[in-house]
From TrEMBL:
Chief subcellular location: plastid
GO cellular component: chloroplast
Keyword Cell membrane among record annotations: no
Protein's name in the database: pyruvate dehydrogenase (acetyl-transferring)
Enzyme Commission numbers on file: 1.2.4.1
Cofactor needs: thiamine diphosphate
Gene Ontology biological process: pyruvate decarboxylation to acetyl-CoA
Ranges for domain Transketolase-like pyrimidine-binding: 76-251
Keywords, sorted A to Z: Chloroplast, Metal-binding, Oxidoreductase, Plastid, Potassium, Pyruvate, Thiamine pyrophosphate, Transit peptide
Subunit structure: Tetramer of 2 alpha and 2 beta subunits.
Enzymatic class: oxidoreductase
Organism: Zea mays
Amino acid sequence: MAAAASSALHAVGAVASAKPRSVAPAVATRRSVRVAPAAKRGPGSGGGRLVARSAVAAKADEAAAAAGSKSGGHELLMFEALREALIEEMNLDPTVCVMGEDVGHYGGSYKVTKGLAEMFGDLRVLDTPIAENSFTGMGVGAAMKGLRPVVEGMNMGFLLLAYNQISNNCGMLHYTSGGQFKIPVVIRGPGGVGRQLGAEHSQRLESYFQSIPGLQMVACSTPYNAKGLMKAAIRSENPVVLFEHVLLYNLKEKIPDEEYICCLEEAEMVRPGEHVTILTYSRMRYHVMQAAKTLVNKGYDPEVIDIRSLKPFDLHTIGNSIKKTHRVLIVEECMRTGGIGASLRSAIIDNFWDYLDAPIMCLSSQDVPTPYAATLEDATVVQPAQIVAAVEQICQ
């Protein structure tokens, strides 16, 4: 296995030296639009409180959206937006490559890599054996050698087999090598509670990976931010885990024709409001927005934020909202015990306790394996009616 992995890595590494036409300008273009750091710590920011923030990426995001609306843009499903991001980045930078099970001529389980093998060849779109620990480790090694691998987990639950590579290698090698190695690798794939996929295919691994030092985590929820986050993750010098939800791949949206990127450390204001801050991400964004319609009819004005960056949290955007509404509801599909909501609640208490007029509420999935039966599956995850009831309780 080690010899096979070494041989495959050597083959993928050959891509970096096989430069296509106009490589230099393309790479220069990629670097010229690299995402700026999203947050800075000022002197006297005791307790790690975020006190200042760069607006470069936010302005670029808004400008791209405005440009898209003027030019009309084009409609894409979310899996097509992810695919478009991969194609653009692979055209711009010959060091970007893709590896995983069935990512090549089959096009991936959800067709995110459909047609890429024909466009870029079998060395840059590498079909691997069913061995997540091996090909994830190979991706880390490729990143150490100067490539920018995108590693696909056919299902996020399977990446538990590569937990050692993600934790001890991806997250720590930059530190343990004394900065000699960078690990610009993207680990992505479908996860979340689907439609009767059973317990082992309904994992939400954000709760597993959030405590690993050195990793960044983002969760896409729309075709627009799926493409923008994918491009930013590929360009990042850090290892990034991109969470995609299995039920959102067929979501359709118009996105700009012009190139754009989203900041990896920035939340998205979905709906401004005055009465309560609702923090959510991924598929739960749509349950929250469904609940918001009912809440507005009942006289409430919720502010909805897609936190999007699961690590680190965008405490600037979150804090500004809390200072306005003074009430917080967290809605997640992750499990209650040790989930993203628990970490987010702790961060809010540490940084914005004085601004809260009510206890923070958190709606999470039940701490049970996800059942196969549809009615039981629905009972384990948060539903819009529960969100409405929670807001009414908070605002009493």
